[in-house]
């Protein structure tokens, strides 16, 4: 959606909101985002399918809000144009994406692991009967298709030893017994979707619930593991409350979920004709894979 069109919708829907300054971000996969006066966020889904997902987000966030998580989450208000749902608005969560922060920031305050553990506990314990069928993205077909894309577009470009590690990774995961899928997960809890408050040196919020779905709760630790490794992931797990054996959950993170972000990153780069240094692209994967093998 063009910036001019977004501003027109905002002015029509919120005539008392003075639009003095706008910051536009259209680089996301799912939404165009316009921040007005550094205070109010407007998210406009790029497709009708994403609009349906955002409506689902709104319902889940409403339920999550009742659990009073320690971190802030968006409080969605639906935006309409001529009676048609086109997006959501919410107060801007002050801070920066954790992806823009140094790794030391996350470790400097022990409360950060506690805050994420509390958030995941409360999200994962939402009563499914209150939300209905929210769908599942990470089906067997999803993982089969990912592996096929990896074999077609990534394996031919990497050396044989890493090829073998990747092949073994997928083969073992695809052949393993699947855990029961009865949990609501965030589905995209990466550093890009965690907000960090520099002034207080603490995590301030979690955003972008577009990929919320029924899934394996271990998947929500994947982004943390990929970015910060096993040590911080275990700190978060220490504050995470679950009836499941935490060692079993961590094993699923360490053996597969925490390693698979590399494939999405590289495939995205290929699809967008970005330059890839194949000599270094899998350095992080190799490092984290060493913990899996030990």
TrEMBL record:
InterPro entries, alphabetized: AGP_Transferase (IPR051678), Aminoglycoside_PTrfase (IPR002575), Kinase-like_dom_sf (IPR011009), Tyr_kinase_AS (IPR008266)
GO molecular function, one term: protein kinase activity
Superkingdom in the source lineage: Bacteria
All copies of domain Aminoglycoside phosphotransferase, residue ranges: 24-241
The keyword Calcium appears for this protein: no
One of the Pfam families matching this protein, by short name: APH
Keyword Transferase (UniProt): yes
Protein's name according to its UniProt entry: Aminoglycoside 2''-phosphotransferase
Species name: Halobacillus alkaliphilus
């Amino acid at each position: 959606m063009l910036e001019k069109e977004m501003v027109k919708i905002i002015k029509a829907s919120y005539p008392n909101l003075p639009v003095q300054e706008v910051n536009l971000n259209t680089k996301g996969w799912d939404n165009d985002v316009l921040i007005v006066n550094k205070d109010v966020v407007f998210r406009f889904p790029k497709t009708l399918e994403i609009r349906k997902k955002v409506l689902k987000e709104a319902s889940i966030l409403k339920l999550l809000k009742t659990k009073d998580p320690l971190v802030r989450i968006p409080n969605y208000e639906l935006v309409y144009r001529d009676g048609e749902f086109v997006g959501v608005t919410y107060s801007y969560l002050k801070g920066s994406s954790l992806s823009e922060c140094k790794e030391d920031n996350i470790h400097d305050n022990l409360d950060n692991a506690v805050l994420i553990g509390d958030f995941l506990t409360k999200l994962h314990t939402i009563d499914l009967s209150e939300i209905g069928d929210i769908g599942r993205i990470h089906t067997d077909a999803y993982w089969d298709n990912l592996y096929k894309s990896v074999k077609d577009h990534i394996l031919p470009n990497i050396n044989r030893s890493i090829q073998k590690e990747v092949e073994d990774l997928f083969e073992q995961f695809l052949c393993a017994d699947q855990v029961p899928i009865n949990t609501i997960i965030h589905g995209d809890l990466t550093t890009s979707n965690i907000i960090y408050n520099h002034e207080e040196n603490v995590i301030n919020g979690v955003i972008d619930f577009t990929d919320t779905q029924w899934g394996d709760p271990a998947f929500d630790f994947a982004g943390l593991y990929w970015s910060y490794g096993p040590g911080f992931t275990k700190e978060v797990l220490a504050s995470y409350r679950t009836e499941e054996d935490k060692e079993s959950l961590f094993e699923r993170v360490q053996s597969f979920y925490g390693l698979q972000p590399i494939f999405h990153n590289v495939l995205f780069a290929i699809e967008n004709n970005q330059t890839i240094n194949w000599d270094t692209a899998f350095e992080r994967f190799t490092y984290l894979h060493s913990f899996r093998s030990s």
